[in-house]
Here is the input.
Amino acid sequence: MTALVIIARFSSRSEALVAQSLLASEGVETLLPEFNVLMAELDPSMMEHGWRLMGSSEEMFKAQTILREAQLDDCGEGA
Here is the structure.
């Protein structure tokens, strides 16, 4: 059994969902433990540590690489 680790943290639920969708399209399974915390969008102090995107420790490096490359592409710095 592999351990769950935090792959990334996000300041908003929508950012976390986009990242989760991107990783799913690449075959990387993740979960958002705080997904059902609706009040956090209204009161940011409820989410002191941000929205956690968690996944397998075995796929952590792959997931972080995918997210980093996507961010570079968004900035126009990718291929």
Notes: Residues 6 and 79 are 27 Å apart (CA to CA).
